[in-house]
């Protein structure tokens, strides 16, 4: 049993989950997610949690079977296996389906996505100015934030997005790499479609590019690697800002390493060598 986001979560036999809200706001969020899951289920080919009971004080869900392949660097290790490329293909296809599953009018009823990992450039600069581990990283941070500030999503790119699609919210068959399904759509809503790819860079550049290619092949409008990359960079900066001062040295070091990889690896090397984010 655990308490998270105003709800108690209890794992039950048979791969099921009981969720008990402890306030009216949490109950409303559960009801909203249940409505979205019921609407999406018949319209996509990948698995989603199914609602078995939905009352004001209790919700029961049947979970999507599979393994979570995220955390502690497991993404890149998985992407290096042949199964990783299967997962990239499946994720690209799944997102193409998700992003066109609802009409604009249907999606607008759910409102904007809740994406706390993408604060404004000014907020991030205020939180992290003078705290980066070295001058070179601080300079790259400033330049990447300048690119982020200049980027305004196009109206055509605003779709129903998952909003928090990291590896921990994917149910994967570890033997084949097949994507069994997605879950935790609590924060889903209208957002730039590129945000649903922003954590794919945790699997590496080749994985991200392959997922983007599969997305386009499945009928999704071609997405920009650079725009996905800038969101990933901002997510890394926000994660570092969130962990500072909390006393977990191991996690703090991991977040510092993530920031350095963003600033000095393929993302920083590509974005900072160009005058602007490419279309």
Defining traits:
45% helix, 279 residues, 2 domains, Phosphorylase Kinase, domain 1, alpha+beta, Aminoglycoside 3'-phosphotransferase, Chain: A, domain 2
Account of the 3D structure:
The structure is a single chain. With 279 residues, this protein is an alpha+beta fold. It has two domains: 2-62, Phosphorylase Kinase, domain 1, CATH 3.30.200; 74-271, Aminoglycoside 3'-phosphotransferase, Chain: A, domain 2 (Alpha-Beta Complex), CATH 3.90.1200. Helix content is 45%, strand content 14%. The chain is globular, with a radius of gyration of 19 Å. The termini are far apart.
In short:
With 279 residues, the protein is α+β, with helices and mostly antiparallel strands. The protein has helices at residues 24-40, 74-79, 82-101, 104-108, 121-128, 135-150, 205-217, 225-243, 249-264, 266-271; strands at residues 2-4, 7-12, 16-21, 50-54, 59-62, 158-161, 170-172, 179-182, 189-192. It folds into two domains: 2-62, Phosphorylase Kinase, domain 1 (2-Layer Sandwich), CATH 3.30.200.20; 74-271, Aminoglycoside phosphotransferase (APH), C-terminal lobe (Aminoglycoside 3'-phosphotransferase, Chain: A, domain 2, Alpha-Beta Complex), CATH 3.90.1200.10.
């Amino acid at each position: 049993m655990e308490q998270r986001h105003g709800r108690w979560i209890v794992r039950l036999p048979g791969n099921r989950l009981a969720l008990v809200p402890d306030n009216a706001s949490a109950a409303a969020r559960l009801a909203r997610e249940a409505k979205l899951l019921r609407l999406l289920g018949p319209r996509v080919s990948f698995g989603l949690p199914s609602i078995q009971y939905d009352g004001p004080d209790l919700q029961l869900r049947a979970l999507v079977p599979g393994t979570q392949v995220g955390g502690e660097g497991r993404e890149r290790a998985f992407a290096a296996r042949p199964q990783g490329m299967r997962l990239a293909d499946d994720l690209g296809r799944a997102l193409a389906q998700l992003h066109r599953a609802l009409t604009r009018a249907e999606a607008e009823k759910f409102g904007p996505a809740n994406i706390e990992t993408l604060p404004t450039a000014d907020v991030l600069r205020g939180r992290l100015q003078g705290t980066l581990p070295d001058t070179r990283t601080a300079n790259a941070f400033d330049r990447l934030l300048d690119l982020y500030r200049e980027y305004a999503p196009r109206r055509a790119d605003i779709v129903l997005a998952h909003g928090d699609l990291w590896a921990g919210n994917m149910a994967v068959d570890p033997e084949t790499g097949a994507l069994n399904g997605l879950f935790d759509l609590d924060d889903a809503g209208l957002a730039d479609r590129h945000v649903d790819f922003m954590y794919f860079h945790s699997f590496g550049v080749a994985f991200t590019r392959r997922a983007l290619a599969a997305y386009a092949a499945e009928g999704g409008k071609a997405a920009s690697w650079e725009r996905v990359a800038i969101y990933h960079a901002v997510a890394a900066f926000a994660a570092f800002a969130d962990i500072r001062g909390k006393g977990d040295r191991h996690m703090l070091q991991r977040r510092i390493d993530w920031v350095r990889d963003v600033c000095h690896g393929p993302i920083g090397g590509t974005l900072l060598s160009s005058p602007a984010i490419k279309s």
